[in-house]
Amino acid sequence: MARQRRSILVVDDDAEMRALLLDVLRNEGYDVVEAKDGTEAVLALRARAFDLILMDKNMPGPSGLDLLPGFRRVCPDSQVILMTAFGDVPSYMEAVEKGAAEYLFKPFRMEELRAAIAKALQFDAQSRP
Amino acid sequence: MRGQWMRAIGNRLRHNLTTRLILLLVLALMVITGINDYTRLVSEREQLVMQTREDERIFAETLALAVRYNLRRGRTTEELEGLLEEIVARPGLAAVVIYDPDAGVVARTLASGSEVPTPDELVRRSLTQREAVSAVADSPSGRILRYVQPFRWPGGRVGAIEVQQTLREMERQFRRAVRTTIISRLLVLALFVLSIVILTRWNIARPIRALIAAARAVGRGDLAQRIEVPRQDEIGDLAAEFNRMAENLQAANAELVRQAEERLRLEQEVQQTQKLATVGMLAAEVAHEIGTPLNVISGRAEVLDRVVPRDHPERRNLDVILSQAERIKGIIRALLDYTRPRRPTLRPEPILPIVGRVASLLMERSQRRGVRLHLELPIGLPSVMADPEHLQQVFLNLVLNALDASEKGGTVRITAGPDPDLPSDGRAGILRGKADVPTLAIHVIDGGKGLSAEDLNHVFEPFFSTKGRGQGTGLGLAIAEEIVRAHRGEIEMLSIPGKGTEVIVRIPLADASPAPTPQQAVQHGR
Predict the structure, then answer these.
(1) Rounded to the nearest 10 degrees, what angle do helices A89-97 and B476-486 cross at?
(2) What is the distance, to the nearest Å, from the Cα of residue A43 to the centroid of all Cα atoms in its chain?
(3) Chain A: residue whose CA lies nearest to B302
(4) What is the pLDDT of residues B332-342, one digit of tens each?
(5) Of B16, B280, B438, B456, which has the most beta carbons under 10 Å away?
(6) Which pTM value belongs to this model?
């Protein structure tokens, strides 16, 4: 794998979903850290920077949409991909407004995930000087 | 039997205008002509008597001359009677008597069946007063007219000649006159009644009966009923007026029916939309809840898919898991697509008819609730980019909420303008959607119970309701928000607990240039 090890923070309250994403993304060669809610995500972001944050929209406590503006402010270099239930169009609109790079409707195929991540990171690479 | 007859006539008099009219006119005519005829007949009779008397006077005078001449010549009683006998052939003459100055009968002649006249008071009066007297007297053969004419008796004294004429002929004449009068009067009356009957039947009774029949038909609900009366008089006017009334009634009725149908259609539409929205919300919830586990299943299967070789004995199990996960995804997608409200077709539309229809739809409900509904939209508002039916649904939900929140005697106002109506102090607000072009703001304001800041934060969430259990679906504002967002407008709710709520809907103006939206990409792209 020619490209450097990129880091991803997975934020989802569902343990099985987290486990799946961790397995798949680690297998892809990413450096993956998990967080089960907003609090853990904030703690993780304090500890280090991530290239990408893959975050569920619906979580107990602050939602992905609530967290998004703060994340964009604190770590503007991190791209954010939001995940939400299929057909949740209003959230999509709000997510785009708040600066999410990509949006995934659950359930999504792993190829879609890979493509979205690749797109977000490529975009990231281009926008970086 | 007789009583029944009388009752039948009484009924006819009470219920039939023609009969009453005829009876009245006949009575009046009978009284007038009766008096006239009576006086005429009475005077005619007097005339006849006078004429007879005059005849008798001439006759008696002539006779007196002749008798005097004969007496002077010294004729005997027999000779005088012979003379009288010749004269008495005159028709109607009952008797002729000659009296001497002492009222003694000198000569007399009698028609057959006549009574023998005797010198009486009348004769004596004529002799003493030396003047002619006459009187009507009754005799067994009928009424007679007596005429006593004094004449100079030889020797300077006065004798008298009496002529008695029967009045039979005159009375027969009179009776004939009475009879012809009565017959002619009856004829006139009959003609009169006949002409009135025909006249009223053709001119009044028939058209009135037609009017009654038509009015009954209209009363029964047959509003297409019209009357054909091609006339210029009052009845024609009445018929024309009736037709106009029926026409107006029919038009008003048709309008009512149309409105009722329209209302029904709208209500059904609203119900259908809300039902679909409810199912849609449920489907979204389900999709949301099973999205993650389904994602885990399909994700794990995909992981396996990459490592399990094509010819592995368990390969079929994996393929089934993959395809069935895909199938569930398809089902959810189809359900969501089906229940998602159709996309609005935005076009320039004036706001007044949209809000006006909502107001007219809810006018009855507001009246029932004792809440005044005020529409205060100024003339000449700019058009907005809208789907009228969708926007109608928004205002329907908003006004329904406002009515529900209002106390009896309260007012719900719908206005359009730039500024919020509620005082700026003490109000909490929530804004959903984002309009980045010039908009028209429409306000729905109530003076109801208002909402706490905490409740206000949740009002746009599906299934949130401050109304009692079972009263609201909790979807009204969620739907309103979705529609307003689809219009690329925004919806804001301001409230002060206890003072009222104001909802402001801002819809982009028709002449504002539309900005591209990512929504289409979402709906078609994924």
Answers:
(1) 60
(2) 15
(3) A110
(4) 777 776 666 66
(5) B280
(6) 0.41
H/E element, B38: helix B17-72
Identify whether the C-beta of residue B133 lies closer than 8 Å to the C-beta of residue B122.
yes
Please count the CA atoms within 13 angstroms of the CA of B481 that sit on its side-chain side: 20
**Which DSSP category does B510 fall into?**
T
Angle between helices A110-127 and B234-307 (to 10 degrees): 90
> Are residues B130 and B150 in contact, defined by beta-carbon separation less than 8 angstroms?
yes
Q: Is the pLDDT of residue A53 over 60?
A: yes
Q: Does A22 touch chain B (CB under 8 A)?
A: no
- Choosing among B286, B295, B477, which should be mutated to test the A contact, i.e. which has the most A CBs within 10 A? B295
ipTM score: 0.82
Residue B119 in tokens? 């010198």
Residues of chain A found within 8 Å of residue B283, distances taken between Cβ atoms: 87
pLDDT in tens, B216-254: 988 888 888 888 877 788 888 888 888 898 899 999 989
Q: Assess contact for B400 and B361: CB atoms under 8 A.
A: no
The phi, psi pair for B312, rounded to 5°, reads -70, 140
B441 contacts B508 by C-beta, under 8 angstroms: no
If you compute the radius of gyration of chain A from its CA atoms, what whole number of angstroms results? Answer: 13
Residues 6+ apart with CB under 8 A from B350: B381, B383
Helix (H, G, I), strand (E, B) or coil at B377: coil
